[in-house]
Amino acid sequence: MKRLSYKEQWSLLEKMNLTQIITPDLFLEAEIRQYQEKELLILSGEPLTDLFLLIEGQVIIHSSSEEGKKILLDHESAGSILGDIEYFQQLDYLHTVEAMTPAKAIVFSAAQVESLFSNNTFFWKMFSKSLSDKLMETSNNYAHRLMYPLKIRLCQLLIKEAPLTEQRVFPFSTRQAAQILGVSERHLRRIFNELKTEKVLIKEIHTIRILDFQKLKEMANW
Predict the structure, then answer these.
(1) Cα(222)–Cα(212) distance, rounded to whole angstroms?
(2) Which domain holds residue 122?
(3) Neighbouring residues of 33: CB distance < 8 A, sequence distance ≥ 6
(4) pLDDT tens, per residue, the chain with 222 residues
(5) Are residues 96 and 153 in the same domain?
(6) pLDDT score for 124
(7) What CATH number is associated with residue 164?
(8) What letter does residue 162 receive in the DSSP assignment?
């Protein structure tokens, strides 16, 4: 974990249009931390000490089974608050949060949140939106698993992940996709083979190559 200088931190807040929420006096009680890929922000079972506002990058949220197997529950991107559920329920951290890409987060002491932001309506609106977004995401994910077959859900995931480039080539992890979709890697590879036969895409070692983006959108019911 790397800590940025005060000047670097404030410049980043201005870039993210967060100075209305994080005023200079409040910022003295917070800091921006920088995390490398696969570095942990939160460890399941640890006491709640901090709240995290993710401002760059993506993280994955996972738990472990009794056998020690990692179970991926969700992934979050910039704008998400981490530790909000535990804060309101007064619980230890429920799940482990790991940087999926290099990431930056504003970190506040959980013990000081109420006193620091008691009159800051912008902060509490952001807090409420984070919770409602998680509720909607959970509801949508559950509905998707009930309503859509795996091929459609995979195509929808690929459209969300695909950058807007002509080449349509981007990094992709079969292992992480299998965890997100709740299936085995073997099952997912079978779907990739079908999509290759249908000339929609090619799954290479660490990347996806989209051959026909329009057909991919049609298959995703997009």
Answers:
(1) 14
(2) 2-145
(3) 1, 2, 3, 4, 104, 105, 107
(4) 666 676 777 777 777 777 777 777 677 777 889 999 989 999 999 999 999 999 888 898 888 755 566 777 788 888 889 999 999 899 999 999 999 889 999 898 888 888 878 788 888 888 888 888 888 877 776 666 667 888 988 998 888 777 655 557 888 888 878 877 878 889 999 999 999 999 999 998 888 999 998 899 898 876
(5) no
(6) 85
(7) 1.10.10.10
(8) -
Nearest Cα to Cα of residue 48 among 106, 110, 117: 110
Query: What gap in Å lies between CA 120 and CA 114, rounded to an integer?
Result: 10
List C-alpha distances in Å: 38 to 90, 122, 135.
27, 31, 26
Domain count, the chain: 2
Per the structure block, which two tokens stand in for 165? 């480039």
User: Within this chain, do residues 155 and 69 fall inside the same structural domain, yes or no?
Assistant: no
At residue 170, what are phi and psi to the nearest 5 degrees? -150, 155
Domain final residue pick, 111, 127, 145: 145
φ, ψ for residue 172, nearest 5 deg: -155, 135
3-class secondary-structure state, position 157:
helix
pLDDT of residue 143: 67
Domain end position, chosen among 92, 119, 145: 145
Are residue 136 and residue 152 in the same domain, yes or no?
Answer: no
- 64 and 158 fall within a common domain: no
**b/e sequence 80-98, b meaning 16+ C-beta within 10 Å:** bbbbbbbbeeeeebbbbbb
